[in-house]
Amino acid sequence: MDRSQIEKVFDILSQNYPLFSEHDNEWMSDGVNSTPFKNSVSVTLSTMTHTKRVIRAAVELFSEVSTPHELEQLTDEHLREIFKPVAHYSRKKITLKEMCRQQIEKQGGKVPQFRE
Prior knowledge:
20% of the residues are buried. The chain is elongated. The model has no long low-confidence stretch (mean pLDDT 87). It has helices at 3-16, 26-29, 36-46, 51-62, 68-73, 76-83, 89-107. The termini are far apart. By secondary structure, the chain is mostly helical. The chain has a single domain, classed as Endonuclease III, domain 1. Helix 3 (36-46) packs across helix 4 (51-62) and helix 6 packs across helix 7 (89-107). 64% of the residues lie in helices and 0% in strands.
């Protein structure tokens, strides 16, 4: 193939398949990764779970909490109900509560911005 043929193929593909940044990306549009805290929680929930289920649970959770302190204050029963759409929700509830406890104790409630 010469350059003009490659460009023609690219033009045709570009018309039929928009770039990733041009679509409505649920992960971005629903704000489940808009802060380091929300991103770390969403990533934890995403293990072994479809993205749509993670987004549903994360949006519900983030309507109530925005910090590790707030998440840690929720009852286990309430978190279990919020996390039900995701796989292994009981284990993830325990993991997230522990993650929040460590962030509060070791980082003053802030999510680290770097790897140590």
